[in-house]
Structures are given as structure tokens and as C-alpha cells.
Amino acid sequence: MTHTLAAVFDNRSDAERARTDLIGSGFNNTALSDSSADGASASAGATAAAPRDESLGDRIGNFFSNLFGDEDDERRVYEEAVHRGKAVLTVQADSEDEIERAADIVERYGPVDIDEYQNEWRASGWSGAETPRSGAQNLQGSAASQGAMQSASQQGGASAQGSMQYAAGAASQTIPVVEEALKVGKRIVQRGGLRIHQRVVSTPVSENVSLREEHVNVERHAVDRPVDPASVDAFQENTIELREMAEEAVVQKTARVVEEVVVSKDATQRQDQINETVRRTEVEVEQLGADDADADQYFRSHWTSNYAGSGGGYDDYAPAYRYGATMRSSSPDRSWDEAEPTLRSSWESSYPQSAWEKFKAAVRHGWDRVTS
């Protein structure tokens, strides 16, 4: 099945940039339709409509008839977008996954909310097929674009989604509820340890030892006695030696083990509590009554006037408008200054991804609408 995505842009340049990005990403079946008026305009008080180029209007009608088939309402909206100077970019793909990828690319270039403009155009009156004669119409695409669009329209109608249109065959839309699951694993990391160094240290020591020394002493004594006749060797030469002996210290060193250093590791188990945040999408179904529809139209108009050019869509600001209106209804006796701290705390708790300072003015507008 061929799926077709249609996106509306305020100006042709944004649509051209989106189309170039799509082609660079492998989407070759793209087409661009727009109509821009020339510099001339009717004078003040003129009531006649500008002349219409029938062949140009037919081309616009045929283009969207091929795209949407029998879906007259959808075809009329996109024809009206072109007649009012918008640019409509279409891209085709063979699967829903590919068309979703194309939608992500297109969103980078700021397509407008076609539903919002549709309500405004219905309120102000359709311009119909009135296209200025000097307007420039462009239908650019690959060789098989018209035939592929025809087959897509035959396979199913179109389902609107914000500023883009999916020409797929489904009659209903499935909104997935996505929830993150926490899975805790383990890995080994180095937390520390010991490094042991062994080195030699020299330490001076002292020991006392007793050493014996011999000394030869010579003493002369004066005597007077006759020589003993038995000493026949009295007049013989003789040499007598007496040696002096002494003790000296002999040092020997013996290595002995005096201490042992034992290094070991002990493993312990501990329980650790992991605190983490998991995300989950929630789908809220809200019944809209007549008053809610009026309020939504009022808030859309305010968003268009104040925030449309700053980035983001109406769906980003809608919760802030409704939050302000709801909180004001529940606290009719409190002023804004009194309630703001509580409103901010509750908002940051309910919408942690949406900064209070960014949406504060929208909340205040919803608050003031109920007040007034």
C-alpha cells in the first residue's frame, strides 16, 4: 500500500527546504503545490473578485482530487490552503514506518496546523477556487508522482493529524501507550586497592665488645752478684723475641626473618537501593462540549496571535490554557498573585518537561478568561 503525507507551510521557501531534505533522505516521490499573488491588488471599496484562470484552478482541483479521492472535505481544505497562499508539500512511501520518518523530517521546517486554519477559513467563508491570474502554480514531483497519488487515494481515505495529512487506508488510529521498564545489571569496576613496595633500609647499630691486647714491658734493675759457674753460656750471643698479641672485632651479619606481611582480599555482599525514574505515556480522553469547543477556538486564536511564530504547536500550549482555566474555576476567590506559587508547584509536578516560565503567560490567559 502506498501511503501519502501532506504538509502545509506558510511560505514556499520552508516547503522547498523540507522537500530538498526529503529527497536527500531518499524520498523521491514528492510534490509541491502553491499559489502566490502578484503585487497588484484591488482598490479600496472594490467588490468584484479578481479574474480567475480556469485552467490553473482545474489543475489545483485535479491535484488534490488525485490525492484525496472522494474525501471532499479534506480536498476542499487543501485547495483552500493553496488559494490562500499556502504551500502544500506531499510525499509518498511504501510503509507506515517510512511515512513516519518523512513526518519527522517535515516537522523540522515548521508546518502549520491545518485544523486551526480550517476553522478560521470556515468562519470567514471559503475563498473557493479564486486564484489570482498572475499567480504562479507549481506542481513539482518525480515522474510517477501523479499515478502514485492516484493509487494511494484509491486504497483509502485520509486521516488528519495536526498540520500533516496521512492518506492511508486505516479508518481508526491506534495510540500506543509506552512505558519504560527498569532493568538493573552489574558490572565490575575498580574502586581502589593497595600497592605494596619492598625496599632495603640501612640503620646504624652499636655494640660494645671487650678486646684483649698484650704489651711487652722492658725493666732494668741494678744487681751485684757473681756469675753462676753453671751458666757456661753467659758470654754467648742470644736473641729473645716476645710478641705482643691483641684481639680485634670480627663482624658478621646474619639475615633473619623478624616479621611477615600477609596480603589477602575479602569479598563482602551489600544491598544497594537503586532510585531511578521511568517514563510512561498516558492517554487522556476528554469529552468536549459546546463550551469546551468555544474555549478551544478562543485559545487557538490567542495562540496564533501570540505564540505561533515562536516555535512549537498549539498542542504544546493547549494544556497550559486548560490548566489555567481549570485552576481558576476551582479557586474563584483567589487572585492570580495569591495563587501563582501554588499553580507553579502543581504545574511543575504535573508537567516536568514544560518549563513554567515558558507557559506561564498561557496559563495566565486561561485563568483570566474564566475571571472575565
TrEMBL record:
It comes from the Bacteria. InterPro entries: DUF2382, Stress_Response_Assoc. Residues 33-50, 140-156 have a biased composition (Low complexity). Residues 175-285 form the DUF2382 domain. Residues 33-55, 125-156, 327-348 are annotated as: Disordered. This is Conserved domain-containing protein. It comes from Pseudoduganella namucuonensis.
